[in-house]
Structure formats: C-alpha cells, structure tokens
TrEMBL record:
Top-level taxon of the source organism: Bacteria
Domain Rhodanese: 17-111
Provenance organism: Jiulongibacter sediminis
Matching PROSITE patterns: RHODANESE_3
Protein's name in the database: Rhodanese domain-containing protein
PANTHER family listed in its UniProt record: BETA-LACTAMASE DOMAIN PROTEIN, PERSULFIDE DIOXYGENASE ETHE1
Amino acid sequence: MEQSEINTNTLRAWLDTGKKVNILDVRPMNEREEWKIPGSIHIDAYDELKKKNPEALKLVDFDKSIPVVTVCAGGKTSLIAAEMLHNSGYETYNLQGGMKGWSLSWNTASIVFDDFEVIQFRRTGKGCLSYIIVSEQKAMVIDASLPVETYQEFLDHKALTLKYVADTHIHADHLSRTKELAEKYGIRPSLPSNDKLNYPFKDIVDGQDLSIGNIKVKAIHTPGHTLESTCYLINDKVLLTGDTLFTNGVGRPDLKADKEEAVKKATLLFHSIQKIIRLDQSIIVMPGHTSQPVEFDNQPIQSTLTQIVKNTPLLKESEQEFVQSLLKRIPNPPENYLKIVEKNLIGDFTDVNPIDLEAGANRCAIS
C-alpha cells in the first residue's frame, strides 16, 4: 500500500467523475468555516498533528477500501496526517499545496437554449464564476478568473471563434485573466467604460449590443459595487450580473471607498438593482460569485429574478433602509484586495504568485 501526494487536477478529476474518495480536512475550524472542499470531512486535529501526537486521528474510521486525501492550508500538516493514516492501513494521498493550491480547481455546468448556450466555469476553490456564451460556433468569455489554458482548451476543442473577452467590472478578489486571454486570440479585451485601466481595451457602454452568432448580448450599466459595474443580458433570457446581484444577496459597496463614498455607492447600487428587477421576472440570473464551495453536480448556480426578489429581504427595503443595511453588514475585505486591484489595473501579474495573492474566500456578497 503506497502513501503519496496528489495534485489538485487529479483530485478535481476524481470528484468530477464521481470517484469514491474521503477527503479529510485537518485545519482549525475557523479556517474551514472560511472555505472548504465540497464533501470533505473535518476533524479538528491540527494542533495535535503539529505535535505529532499518534492519537491525533484516533476518531477516523473510514472504509479502508476507499482512498483518503488529506488537506490543510498549505499541504504540510496534512502530510503528517497522511502518514499516520497510511500507517493505520489506509490508502492515503496528501493534497499538494493544500487549500491554496485547491483555489484554482474548477468544474462546469451549462444551460442550453435553442439559439445559444451558457457554460458556467465555477472556480470551486474560491467561488468565482466565469462564463462562455456560445452561439453558431461564436463565443464570448466573461469574467475569466481561471488560468487562460482552461478557456483555451474548451474553445479550441469545440472549434469556437472567440469574438469578445469581457469583464463585468474591475475585480478585487481575483486576478482577471481577460487581457491575457484576449491577447492569446489576437483581439482586444472589452471592459465597461472607465478611466482607470492602464492598457488598451474596447469600451462597453450602457445599452450597447454585442453580436455573437445569431444572438445579442446587451450591456446594462449597474454602478454600485464599483462605478463601472455592468451586467450582460443574453437574448433577453439570461442576465450575467457580476458582483451587482447574487442569488441570495447583493454586492458590497465599500471596497476602496471611505464611509461617504460607500454611502454613495450603496445608493447607486440600490438604483441599479431597481433597474434590474424591472426587467422580465422570468430572466435567469447567473452571478459572478457564490459564497459557498461549488459542488461537482453539473447544476448551474442560477435563479430567476422572481425567486431572488422573493427570497432576498434586502430587495424589499426602501432606499434608506437598503443603504443602512448594507453599511451595517460589511464583511471583512478579500485578502490582498488592494494588490489584486493594482495588478488588474495594469493587466499584468507575471511578477507575483497568483495562488498566494488570491488566497482566501471571495467575500463579495452581502445578504
């Protein structure tokens, strides 16, 4: 019986194909509460493992015919756990890079219409959602947050022609791969009109229609989370809302803002959301993030406007109540968000390690 390490791509493939595996998370509970691997099992043994206490995992009682993958924050303490379980007769694997490495793991889910398809790329290790819209073998990528090879392999395998690569806004929780992906295909990145970016891009303005195959994608300016935030309405059926509106909450208005600016942005967000909820209530909303690790279940993260309005108390509040509620519920900011914004403004992060810079949960929503 061999005890070894496993990389995140292999574990992702196991989960994607439904392979039986027990994932043992040995981090302190406060770290697990921040983010976890879907389906993982937790034992709060971190301190005892650090001491190399042979009794640290005495409560583990798994089926020994099923492999065990151990995980911690960076892959070191979990290696101790893997060795202990191996010595107890388990087929064990330590997850290389731990949760930091796992942050780039992903899966997909799709919704299909007669004239177009939307593929949701879910960065399950962080909760970032990006999209490829496909119609008549033409494609548009929105909010690319994964290494560009992920999208490139999909586009090339399907023999798709990439027409646009766009963002909904300037991101603060992850490094945007939009510029890099666009350059791979010899096109200019498209972003909501702003005077902040330090590289050439195509302006996307309110009301603009982008043609992809035989469908239209309409840009709807929705300032609030950021001043340039823009949603994309696909053929009047699907709305990609970025960090403006989530399935159970709204975007935070405080990043890179003092209290007065946060009030102004929260007010803008209120009016942007009112603009959205005046649209056809049957429209399907697909957001830019989720606050929970994404299961490997092929079920897209989506909801209709009707359901969101019904299930989100914030959306029933007056403007004053809404603004006050948001400012009272501001969560901790994403880790390293100022540095991430700085890198996204220049469109180059070759001098940093993305895994280190993007560590931690996205913390984008208020509900």
